[in-house]
Amino acid sequence: MYKITTIPGDGIGQEVMNPTLEILETINAQFDFIPQEAGAECYKKYGTNLPEKTIQSCKESDSTLFGAVTSIPEQKSAIVTLRKELDLYINQRPIKSYTNPDIDFTIIRENSEGLYSHIEEDYGDEAIAIRKITYKGSERICKYAFEYATKTKQEKVTAAHKANVLPLTDGVFKRSFYKEAEKYPHIKANDFYIDAMAMYLITNPAQFDVIVTTNLFGDILSDQGGGLLGSLGLIPSANISKDNGLFEPVHGSAPDIAGQNKANPIAMILSGCLMLEFLGIQKEAEKIQQTIETVIKEGKIKTPDMGGNNNTQEICDEILRKL
Ligand code: NAI
Ligand code: MG
User: Fold this and answer.
1) pTM for the whole thing?
2) How far apart are CA 13 and CA 167, in angstroms?
3) What percent of the chain has pLDDT over 70?
4) What atom in ligand 1 is closest to the CA of residue 67?
5) Pairing of the two strands 210-213 and 2-9
6) Does the Cβ of 191 fall within 6 Å of ligand 1?
7) Domains, the chain
8) 271 C-alpha to ligand 1 centroid (Å)
C-alpha cells in the first residue's frame, strides 16, 4: 500500500486531479490517497497557502500528487516552499511530442536555489532578488543529468546558462557541469547561452537529449517546451530526490479556463505516470503512457488546447476505455 498525499490546489489543478486519481485507481497497485490543501483558496480559509499539516503529510507519504495553485502576493510560493521543505532538488520535465519525432528531450532543472531562493530585499523604490548558485547544488543536479542520460541511453547532455553576463554564479554552474562530464566519457557534453538555447529549441529541437539548467531558466524553457508541443496541458514533471517525490503538471491554475471543464488532464495524468516510475511500478506507467500516446495520435478525442472540443472527463473516459 502506497501512501500518496494529493493536493489539487486551485483552478484547473482541481479539475485535472480527479481524472488522474480515477485512472490510478484502476491499476494493479494499492494507493491510500490523503487529500490535503494548499494555494489561494486555502489561504482564504486558514490564512496560509501552505499549512504545516500539508507539509507533514507530504513528508510522511511515499509521494505527493500536486495539481496547481494560484499565487498570491501576500505569501511565498506554496510549490517552491514544498520543493524546499522536501529537498526535492531535481525537477525533471520530459518534452515529448507524439506526432513530431524531432521533439523528444528532457529538461533537468535545478530545483532548490538560483532565483527561486526566496531571498528578496525591499528598499522602497528598489528591490533586490538574490540569485544564489552553489557548487554543491550545481554538482548534484549535473550529476543527476548525466546519470539520467546514462540510464535512459541518451547521447548528449547540454547545459544552458548565461556565464557571459553572470560569470560568477553561472561560472560555478558551468564549471561543475564540465567537471561532472569528465566522469561520463560515454555521454557527449556541450553548453549554450540560455538566449541562444531558446532559439535552438525552436529551430533545431532534434539536437537535444537532456538539458540541464538552473532554476529560473529551467522554468522558462519548460513552458517553451509546452509551446513546442502546442499546449502546456501535455507536459508532466517530477520533483524528486532519492527519498521523496512530488509530481505535478508544468502548468499553473489557468484562471482563464478554470471552471469550464475544458482543461487538458494529460499533463497531470502523465505526472501520475512519473510517480508510478518513481515508485517502481514501471509496467503500469508504460501502459498508461502508451494509451495516452494512442489517444493523441488517433486525435479523435481532444480538449480545446489540442484543437478539439471534448471536455476534461471525456479525455479521461477515452483513456480508461482503452486501458
Ligand atoms: P498557466 O500555466 O496556468 O496557463 C498558461 C496558459 O496555458 C493559459 O492560457 C491556460 O489556459 C493554458 N493552459 C495551462 N494548462 C492547461 C491545460 N491543462 N489545459 C489547457 N490549457 C492549459 O499559467 P499562468 O496563467 O501564467 O498562471 C496562472 C496561475 O497559476 C498564476 O497564479 C501562477 O502563479 C500559477 N502557477 C502555478 C504553478 C504551480 O502551481 N506549479 C505553475 C505555474 C503558474
Ligand atoms: Mg513554470
Assistant:
1) 0.94
2) 38
3) 100
4) 40
5) unpaired
6) no
7) 1-87+241-323 (3.40.718.10), 89-234 (3.40.718.10)
8) 15
